[in-house]
Amino acid sequence: MPLFSQWNISSSFLSLIFALLLSGIVTIPQSTYAANILAVFPSVWKSHYLFGRAILQELVATQHHNVTLISAFRSVNWVNAQPAPSDTTSNNLPHCGSGHGGGCGSRLTEIQIDGIEQNWLEMGLSIQIDSMHEKSIMERFTRLVYAGASTADLVLANKEVKNLLLSNSTFDLFIVDIFLGDALLGFSQFYKAPTIVVSPTGPNTWINEMTGNSQNSALDPSNFLPYLEQMSLYERIINTLMSVFEKLTYNFFHMIAHQAVYEKHFEPFAMEKNEILPHHRDLAHNISLVLMNSHAVVQYPRSFLPNVIEVGGIHLRDEQLPEHLLKFIEESVDGVIYVSFGADVKTSDFSDQKLDILLHVLETLTDSMRILLKWEDSFDKHDFRSTNIFTSEWFPQQAILAHPKVKLFISSAGLMSVIEAIHYTTPMLAIPILPEQEVNAKRLENRGCGLNLPYEDLNYDSLLDVIASALSNKSLPTNIAATKKLLNENIQDPMSRAMYYIDMVLQTSGANHLKSHANNFGFFKTELVDVLLIILAGVCVIIAVPFLVICAILRRSDYTRTEETLSSMVRQKRSSEPTSPPPPKSPPLRRDSIQRSSSSSEK
Q1: Can you give the residue range of the structural domain that contains 420?
Q2: Stated pTM of the model
Q3: Which residue from 284, 292, 328 is spatially nearest to 308, judged by alpha carbons?
Q4: Which of 106, 258, 297, 586 has the most CB atoms less than 10 A away?
Q5: Which residues are paired to 77 by β-bridges?
């Protein structure tokens, strides 16, 4: 008798149920409907765009959402994996026409904002390596605040963006890279859509201010300082001052500038609808979700609120090497060195002296190895004589790092590059340019996954020696393999985790149950300034009252003592004076003399 005969369940029906359950387990959950998503990535740094683009690609390709993307860059198709201008990684997003509603079957629409880099330069900032090193941390920070407000104004003033706002388009979700771009939150108010913030640089002071996430100056170094989490007393003092400066600037300067930009562009729409435009600070404190490019292995463990999610490594994906690159790598005898300083820094932007040193060392190494060099400039000044140096302005970086013959990755140690190097177990030689890259390089060196050569110390001998050390160090591959296990030990991969939380925000209209009450606190409440002032006043009262009473008593006692002293001194003075006889009394006048004097006067 069949086992399930008592329930009258046929074996074919059981097979169908089993197949459905199995398919539910192995497939990635998808959203129940296709949402309209507005994404804004206005950063001048292409690495920010590449990080956000990985998320958008998943939303379009597997979740079947409709995405409108506003950014300073554009997705491009690469046919047969041919190089594409000004990129460092392959691109699988379909190419879509500009303007709302065009291309990709309306799945992905792109609006490109021109002039963001020029605006960056006009604000006194630069992507030139030596220029960045010449500016102090405080000057760079202040100019960043100016550039953030002017960039937001540039985006909102764009003609295509204006047409989008004037159209009948509706959006269910707003995704934004909001690094110093708070005025862009007006999109969420205009479309009444929940906001998801993407942070390609990981956690920072502004993200913590928006979400109410905790930040301790003794534990969390500023992104603008080259400090590790284990800070000395001096570093903690500097970090505390920098943290206070960041918060004061954010609350009393940055927010005011963005409020002006926000009102300039969104107040007319609110007036047309007879609505009261809320303060953009309220929008900043109503963030539904933050997706951060961070991981405890490549940075350090810290506490986050439930709506602040770490998705470090979300951009990792399988790539294929073009045939010409695959042949160049596999024909190498002793291996390949890959040299790239990221999507934002051009190798040709090195100073002439540093560049000559770098190229001279690379040509020296070609006697035994082959070099892949990301090179974005013409070859008028530098003509490579060796055929073992392959140059291109674009490389499929992940595919290169995944090849076992690639022995060393020379990089500026950007966060995404560090994650890729660890994931593909390729030792790294870091030549950091920015403070956050210096921190990444130090952490990489501390974990034994690479070596660090500061840009200021770059010379022919030091570079040649450190490359030789990296190639001969047998512990680097072992340490980086162990670190890779820690990087990939999560139960859920970062992309699935991001899609899960994005879907939660869509399904719950903002995931309000994950938001902390702390994001409603202002600077004075969060930093306990009001409490400290009251405590200080109480301490002053406690100290002052007894002090005043004692002073009054002492003053009274001194007054009495003074009076007694004066009286005693008077008495002493009188007792010490000598006694003199009284003056003689004049004899009384006799009557006859008086009469005589009167008679004489009559005469």
Answers
A1: 323-487
A2: 0.79
A3: 292
A4: 258
A5: none
